[in-house]
Write a structure and sequence with these properties.
single chain, 238 residues, mainly beta, SH3 type barrels, 6-stranded mixed β-sheet, 2 helices
């Protein structure tokens, strides 16, 4: 595959290096023109030697690579090699847009690592509203009667002859008009109402766990090898 000369970037020490999927990889601690030495950080367990051919753009103090974080971690950049070694690694990448694998052909012996990726499903849960149960109390009126015993006084007038009188008779006050009042008492009923607790309604919520199947489409990468090498046969009679 033909490769053009990589653009010369002006990259200062301390610049932040980010992958094509916008992951922060580290900071530049040295730049010799062929590759950048990126200090070890959260993702890089050691210093990495990133070839300048993997730089896609530079925006101030931010350097953007043309490969993802996973490709950068698995491209053998943790060991310093020759410029040609890095060019070979840089041409072997996984294209997320076209799902194709591009590899270089070199003479002699060597090892080309082609990273393969696949996706897994992870499930997260969040609470959602499923509705509500509304309980209403309604005021109901009804007529109710109770029986209350009451006491009343009644007057009974009885005429008694003098011969049958049990107490001595007096003539005082005789032959004159007179009104004698005898008070009569009774009981009157007043109805009062008092509130009392007649019972209660208990509302309970119970969390019931069930299994729910969810699914989705995941992707994975496969490698298909097309061997186009020629077999050379030697004639023993020649």
């Amino acid at each position: 595959m033909d490769r053009t000369t990589s653009q010369q970037w002006t990259i200062r020490d301390g610049a932040e290096v980010r992958s094509s999927d916008d992951e922060k990889l580290g900071k530049v601690i040295s730049n010799d023109g062929s590759f950048l030495i990126v200090e070890k950080g959260f993702f890089f367990p050691t210093d990495y030697y990133v070839p300048t051919s993997a730089v896609s753009s530079v925006d101030g103090d931010t350097v953007y690579l043309s490969v993802t974080k996973d490709v950068a971690l698995n491209s053998g950049w943790d060991q310093r090699g020759t410029s040609s070694d890095y060019e070979t690694v840089g041409t072997t990448s996984v294209s997320e847009s076209y799902d194709t694998v591009e590899s270089t052909r070199a003479t002699g012996t060597g090892t080309t690592r082609v990273p393969l990726y696949e996706e897994d499903l992870t499930a997260t849960k969040r609470p959602v509203e499923r509705g509500s149960v509304r309980i209403e109390k309604e005021l109901v009126t009804e007529d109710r009667n109770i029986t209350v015993p009451v006491t009343e006084e009644r007057v009974r007038v009885t005429r008694v002859d003098a011969a049958d009188a049990t107490s001595p008779m007096s003539t005082e006050g005789a032959f004159r008009d007179e009104v004698i009042e005898v008070p009569v008492t009774g009981e009157e009923v007043y109805v009062q109402k008092t509130a009392r607790l007649a019972g209660e309604v208990v509302v309970e919520k119970e969390a019931v766990q069930t299994d729910k199947r969810v699914g989705g489409t995941v992707r994975r990468e496969e490698v298909h090898v097309d061997d186009s090498t020629e077999t050379v046969r030697h004639d023993s009679n020649s």
